[in-house]
Specification:
Blueprint (H helix, E strand, L loop, with lengths): L18 H17 L2 E7 L7 H10 L4 E7 L1 H14 L6 E4 L2 H9 L26 E13 L25 E3 L5 H14 L1 H9 L3 E3 L3 H6 L9 E5 L8 E3 L8 E9 L6 H12 L1 H4 L28 H9 L1 H15 L11 H5 L20
Parallel strand pairs: 1-2, 1-3, 5-6
Antiparallel strand pairs: 3-9, 4-7, 4-8, 4-9
Helix pairs in contact: 1-8, 5-6
């Protein structure tokens, strides 16, 4: 076994570091260095800098190891992965995507490496494949947001219906629901709860639709048109221009961001280090969203996920598996809100400028010339 190298500093914000796990990470680190010290991750997202935090944390903890991460929409990553698998030219060692159905498909095709990383036994129920084909890296969520710097406290929205009030007309900045399946899920649940009249009333508010979720989230409370709200934004810090609320009896979404190593990975040892780091108590207890492990608690300010009766991560997974219905819902939303317009948020300089990025930050490939799943 290679000599264990010295680890970098513990992950910032970690509240639980288990010595036995740290020893295992050190051993995996040594193997990764012996392999060349690089892992290629294709991660789902809609801004090129969305995984910078993970790259920084991983490379700091394991000096000399490179996390080569490319962010793109999950619905584009999976198409390219399937093409490369068929051609025998796979680029990523690890995929970490929103498209949960892909992992079951890839497991059935026997293209995933069976590996149970650190923390596997501590994953919450249903979060990991029993055979080790995939795990949940962490949970992502969308919550309603509002411009706390532009609204008096008594006018902060507390329910989705509040966004239909006159004050929000022409002042909503939203993601096209038919361009992001997680957003589509929220709109589907809202329509099931309140009827199609709710969505048509939302359309009558004349919202400003943008591609991706990052640009709308960044626009609330900061843009030049006075955007006041977003139905599928991010939980934010208290010192930002946008506030948020967690619905208590209305639908919203938390989903498992699954991760897996491919059998064809060119850097399997470093890929195992990455998945074990993601599964460790150290990483999980530092993560600022809802976590995948059952023994680390939740991030400050977030209620235990299991205490929320109006959200079910496994419901989203089941919903995602019915691709025929998802496609039908996309067409339905296009009828209500109109077609998706604009370039991919990973390649649109105007959208990237809302995030403080420039055309020089574009790394994503052009959109695949194939129908999405």
């Amino acid at each position: 076994m290679p000599r264990k190298p010295a680890l970098g500093p513990e992950t910032a914000g970690a509240t639980l570091v288990i010595p036995g796990e740290t020893d295992r990470l050190a051993s995996l680190y040594a193997r990764a260095q012996g392999e060349g010290g690089k892992v290629v991750l294709w991660a789902g997202g809609d801004a090129p800098n969305q995984m910078d935090w993970l790259k920084t944390a991983f490379e700091s903890r394991f000096p000399g190891v490179t996390l080569d991460v490319t962010v793109d929409l999950s619905k584009f990553h999976d198409l390219r992965i399937d093409q490369e698998l068929a051609a025998g030219t796979l680029t990523p060692d690890v995929a970490m995507l929103q498209t949960t159905f892909d992992f079951d498909k890839w497991k059935a095709r026997d293209v995933l490496l069976r590996y149970k990383p650190i923390g596997f036994a501590r994953q919450k129920k249903g979060y990991a494949d029993p055979d080790g084909a995939y795990v949940t890296a962490y949970n992502n969520a969308f919550v309603p947001t509002y411009a706390s710097v532009r609204l008096p406290a008594e006018r902060y929205p507390t329910r989705f219906a509040d966004y239909l009030k006159p004050a929000f007309k022409g002042k909503l900045v939203l993601t096209y629901p038919h361009d992001d399946d997680a957003v589509l899920y929220v709109y589907d649940k809202l329509e099931r709860r309140y009827g199609s009249g709710f969505l048509r009333a939302l359309a009558a508010q004349k919202p400003n639709f943008l591609r991706g979720t990052a640009a709308p989230a960044a626009s609330v409370g900061t843009d030049s048109i006075g955007s006041l709200g977003n139905l599928t934004g991010y939980a934010t810090d208290s010192d930002t221009p946008a506030g948020y609320f967690i619905p208590t009896d209305e639908p919203f979404i938390v989903w498992n961001q699954r991760a897996a190593i491919f059998k064809a990975a060119r850097h399997p040892a470093t890929a195992k280090l990455l998945l074990s780091y993601l599964g460790s108590a150290e990483f999980q207890s530092s993560y600022g969203g809802w976590r995948a492990r059952a023994d680390v608690g939740e991030a400050p300010g977030l209620p235990p996920l299991e205490s929320l009766k109006n959200v079910d991560v496994h419901d989203f997974t089941r919903w995602m598996a019915d691709r025929q219905r998802v496609a039908s819902l996309r067409r339905h939303m296009a009828e209500i809100f109109g077609p998706v317009r604009g370039e991919s948020p990973l390649r649109d300089p105007a959208l990237m400028s809302l995030l403080g990025l420039t055309a020089n930050d574009i790394v994503a490939l052009p959109e695949p010339d194939l129908p999405i799943y």
